[in-house]
Amino acid sequence: MLTSLNNPLIKQIRKLHRSKERKKQNLFLLEGTNLIEAALSENYPLQEVCLTPRWQENHPLLWEKLPLLTQRIEFVTPEILQAIATTVNPDGIIATARPQPCKISDQIPLQLGLMLERIQDPGNLGSIIRTSVATGVEKLWLSEESVDIENPKVLRASVGEWFRLPMITGESLQQKIKAYQCQGVQIVATLPQSSKIYWEIDYTQPTIFLLGNEGAGLSEDLAILADQTVCIPLENKVESLNVAIATAVLLYEVQRQKRQK
Q: By percentage, how much of the chain surpasses pLDDT 70?
């Protein structure tokens, strides 16, 4: 039972609250039963797990599976768990894990993808990930200037779907756009000044959507590469939609067209 904040493992995990330290250690945090269960269901390897005895008692089935995918398991007091958590009321378990490489090659034909430029809000990104899995997105790219994809708030907002979506960060979106265009994939950018409404485009063909920053939208460098630009009509002088909502609108139009066809 770990009871001291000076324990080396506890000090190491507390540092992972900061993005800079997550990159340095090549580790990220999983907080709560929901994320642990999601990771285990996808056979995602865990590095260290800290849990309370009560959590073990309340989750016997998950407890049986934990050792199969975890390098180190430590019991901690509720006070220590609270100290290493980023949430106000942790439910008894926290783990660390290493980012895993994307399993889908660029050479595999793509039907539906998503590229996000300079997304800043972790809640937005987590919601987009959840919606992407629900609508069949096969791959998500995130520009380098965006929120840390391993941010604890991103994982929580995805409600466990984070483990089910291949995601890539730090690569040139311009290069990826051109490569997929050569494969016959249409690139559709969202621009408020576009003359086409989003439902006027055929999405039954391979498609990648481009969406931009919550405030500034897409950069001109990316927008000019798109094969099509679309807008989402707004009334009552509303200037824009939340980027997570806009993404959901577009992705469910893809679902509607494919089901209708």
A: 100
